[in-house]
Design a protein that fits this description.
elongated; mainly alpha; Ferritin; 173 residues; binds zinc ion
């Protein structure tokens, strides 16, 4: 059974959504920190905005959930399809050398995954209530993605993927 097919009611759907949004907020903050290091305050501000949206969303979900009694699911008991919440960059992917074009691409991948997560649920969940709310959430993620697509357009195609680092960190092999 896919994860979407397990979304039999609002409590389980919201329990998953809140974790995803909180993780997403952290990932966006990490990307913003990297952009601060790179002196890219505008891109950093965009990521902070996305982090803020995710936190706001998580907060709304928590408020909506007060009466619902969300199932208490231990972190290791979540059955994410890839072992991790979908709006999560792969943990090794954020590094301090990352330039804004790579950071934006990573953020776009995150938003795309979040969108797809909700979109699949909006089609396949057995509960109509869940499908409806998931469709709304998918739209929100699409808006986040659009914001990043706009940003990406403003960056020259040939911007280097990896900026030169005169003093590379000593990584243990
Ligand atoms: Zn998002």
């Amino acid at each position: 059974m896919s994860l979407a097919q397990k979304m039999s009611g609002l409590p389980i759907f919201l329990a998953y959504s809140v974790v995803m949004e909180e993780e997403a907020a952290e990932r966006h903050d990490e990307l913003a920190d990297v952009m601060d290091v790179h002196n890219n305050p505008e891109v950093a501000a965009t990521f902070r905005k996305l982090a803020h949206y995710s936190r706001l969303h998580a907060q709304e979900i928590r408020e909506q959930s007060v009466k619902l009694e969300l199932p208490k699911i231990a972190p290791w008991d979540f059955e994410w399809e890839d072992g991790e919440p979908p709006e999560t960059a792969d943990p090794g992917a954020v590094d301090y050398l990352m330039n804004r074009s790579k950071a934006l691409r990573l953020a776009m991948e995150n938003e795309q995954r979040a969108h797809d997560f909700y979109a699949v649920i909006s089609r396949e969940a057995p509960s109509a209530e869940v499908r409806e709310l998931a469709a709304e959430f998918a739209d929100e993620e699409q808006e986040h993605l659009d914001l990043l697509v706009e940003w990406r357009k403003r960056i020259p195609e040939d911007e280097e993927e990896t900026p030169f680092d005169p003093d590379p960190p000593h990584m243990p092999e």
